[in-house]
Specification:
Elements lengths: L1 E2 L5 E9 L1 H14 L5 E11 L2 E12 L16 H13 L3 E10 L7 H5 L6 E8 L2 E10 L6 E8 L1
Parallel strand pairs: 1-7, 2-4, 2-8, 5-6
Antiparallel strand pairs: 3-4, 3-5, 6-7, 7-8
C-alpha cells in the first residue's frame, strides 16, 4: 500500500501516524468494502519552528450513518458519537485533528462532495480500497481562502 503525497503539497502541517494506526485505517477500509469506512483522528499539534507536526495518537472508528444505498460513496458520522469521542479525548488532553474515510474502487483523492462538506484546519485522510485491498493513502487540508484541498504529507513511523 502506498502512502502518497499529492502534487500541491501543504508545507505547513505534516501528519504523523504510527504504522499501527495506518494499518487500522487500511483494515477498517477493507472491512467496510464495498462501502466507505469513516472515523476520527485525535492527537495534538506540535510546533517545530515554522512547521507544525500533527501527531495522531488515537483513532476512533465512526459508524457510517449515511443511508444504506449511498454508503459506497458517502459517509456521515453520528454527531452524538463524535461528541462523546471528543469529550473522552479532551480528558486525555487530545483534540480532534481530522477525519478518515475510504474510497472503494476510487482514487485516494477528495471528491467534490468531500470538498463541499469539509472544514478548514482538519486533516482528511483518504484510503483507496481496490477490490477489497488498500492501495493508497493520502491526506488533505481545506484551504480557507480558496476553498480547495491542499495535499498534506503523511509521515509513518
Amino acid at each position: 500500500m502506498n502512502v502518497s503525497e499529492g502534487a500541491t503539497q501543504s508545507a505547513k502541517v505534516s501528519l504523523e501516524l504510527s504504522d499501527g494506526l495506518r494499518l487500522q485505517i487500511e483494515s477498517e477500509g477493507a472491512a467496510a468494502y464495498p462501502n466507505e469506512c469513516c472515523g476520527m483522528l485525535f492527537g495534538r499539534d506540535v510546533k517545530d519552528g515554522s512547521l507544525t507536526r500533527r501527531l495522531v495518537d488515537r483513532l476512533v472508528a465512526g459508524s457510517n450513518t449515511f443511508e444504506a444505498g449511498e454508503q459506497y460513496h458517502r459517509f456521515s458520522i453520528d454527531p452524538l458519537q463524535q461528541l462523546k469521542a471528543e469529550r473522552a479525548a479532551e480528558k486525555e488532553g487530545l483534540v480532534l485533528l481530522g477525519y478518515y474515510h475510504s474510497h472503494p474502487d476510487h482514487p485516494a483523492r477528495p471528491s467534490e462532495y468531500d470538498r463541499e462538506h469539509a472544514w478548514p484546519f482538519y486533516s482528511y485522510v483518504i484510503v483507496a480500497i481496490s477490490k477489497g485491498k488498500p492501495v493508497d493513502m493520502t491526506s488533505w487540508v481545506l484551504d480557507d481562502a480558496s476553498r480547495q484541498f491542499q495535499s498534506q504529507a503523511i509521515q509513518t513511523f
